[in-house]
Automatic annotation (TrEMBL):
Protein name per its UniProtKB record: Iron ABC transporter permease
Organism of derivation: Bradyrhizobium archetypum
Transmembrane domains' residue ranges: 25-52, 72-94, 106-133, 139-158, 170-192, 212-231, 262-285, 300-320, 327-348
Family indicated by similarity: Belongs to the binding-protein-dependent transport system permease family. FecCD subfamily.
Keyword Transmembrane in record: yes
Amino acid sequence: MTDLHTEALTLAGRDAYQALSVRRWIVLLVLVVGVCVALVGDLSTGPASYGLRDVVRTLALPAEADAQMRVIVWSIRMPSALMGVVVGMALAIGGAQMQTILNNPLASPFTLGISAGASFGAALALAFGVALIPMAGDYIVAANAFVVAMATAFLIHLASLRRGASIQMIVLLGIALVFSFNTALAITQYFAAEQAVAAIVFWTMGSLTKATWPKLAITALVVAVTLPVFLRRRWQLTALRLGEARAASFGIPVRRLRLETLILVSLLSAIPVAFVGTIGFIGLVGPHIARMMVGEDQRFLLPASALTGALIMSLSSILTKIAVPGAVLPIGIVTSAIGLPVFLYLILRSGRDIW
């Protein structure tokens, strides 16, 4: 009787796990469909609005489409729309991994100062032409953003290695870094020329309008390189959510895993910020929405976070073009308006768990 009972429990557990896996795959499929629909909607909105059916026909059969519509959809709107999708993926993946390695629900590249550091590095190039990497050429802004973001990530990592370092200390350090870089950015604007100040202000609001195919290719390459690395370490990252001591007992090199993850997160944060400006809260909101839908299993959390971030960015891009008739709002304003209430909700709901 005991053996039969154990076997029954095993079969019931297996059936429950399979049902959960099926539900998670369905969620991912729904997110894929949502991103595709939002992308088409983004391509259809603008100064000249087109029907979704006409846009789909232009995408599927460009040779048979109207010449003007083909140019608008493929040459003007497509780079910006795809850049929104890829940037959303990059920031959401980075936020999910920051929350994983620090075991903190409020951790993200934006809230821990990595995005602010990237912004300051890019501002140095925009204001004074300072190149932190020689021979950066046309990508001096991206190179500067990456260097400062990487330095910020290393500083956070070194702080986490200190004896007695706690989650609250790392979070407070991130907050201090945000204010420090914002102060440095203000000083940079004060001494910069008027034209450079205008460029910095517009850039810090975030915008997809200056997206190009080469910038899109670089950002997509970063996502294509980092996402498989995280997926290969999915079990280590999932175990890390159980706590550093528990993960170490499984033979996981926690310190090395945290350092490598921070390096990749800084890359995922710096490149989008350098190309499209400061985009806030995507790395915070996207992973939390994904976690509510699929749980902590990195096999599903990573793709769900990427798709959720892409969906939020695409929907935000649509809002930037329809909120004010005849104008395109900076997308950073829209994402902040969406993310700030969620941020406050997370603080009020889990304030004790944060510390």
